[in-house]
Write a sequence for this structure.
């Protein structure tokens, strides 16, 4: 019998998964060092960061049997990161700190650093040296990059669904093929 389910759970190879993993770690450190224990904001930030990462993994695992679930969970990951970005925005505003625009003189060097192997291989290396404004802007920039990647992933998942269909179509095709070629099903 020829298997008809597509392979799934390749999320660890996705750059966006790695970035959301970094966002989760950075947020956990930020919450632990800058937001008081027991705070609702601290819990919300940690959960939103975790959700961004976990929903990519869960969606990927579900993709073999449900493209609908994969798409929904990828969108939940993106929405969770949107929520997290708002928490960092709030922190900046509530502490009279500046959210850097794309044109801010420090934005371009920050984006270059975030794309470097130095950052990707050891993202926690510099965080203890950053002040709150720098830390929040680093996380906001990283979250923005991850959301763009997730949008592209959603578009790709939608194209895959349109091209190949869902589990019912795969099962129907496999059963039809098996009936047409019964001698190859051993």
């Amino acid at each position: 019998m020829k298997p008809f389910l597509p392979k799934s759970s390749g999320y660890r190879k996705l750059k966006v998964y790695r970035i959301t993993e970094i966002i989760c770690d950075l947020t956990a450190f930020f919450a632990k060092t800058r937001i008081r224990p027991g705070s609702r904001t601290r819990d919300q930030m940690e959960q939103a960061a975790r959700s961004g990462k976990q929903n990519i993994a869960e969606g990927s695992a579900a993709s073999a049997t449900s493209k609908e679930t994969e798409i929904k969970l990828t969108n939940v990951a993106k929405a969770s990161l949107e929520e997290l970005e708002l928490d960092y925005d709030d922190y900046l505003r509530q502490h009279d700190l500046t959210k850097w625009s794309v044109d801010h003189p420090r934005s371009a060097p920050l984006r270059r650093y975030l794309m470097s192997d130095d950052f990707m291989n050891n993202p926690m290396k510099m965080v203890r040296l950053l002040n709150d404004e720098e830390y929040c802007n680093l996380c906001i920039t990283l979250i923005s990059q991850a959301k763009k990647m997730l949008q592209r992933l959603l578009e790709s998942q939608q194209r895959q669904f349109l091209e190949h269909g869902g589990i019912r179509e795969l099962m129907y095709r496999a059963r039809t093929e098996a009936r047409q070629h019964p001698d190859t099903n051993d």
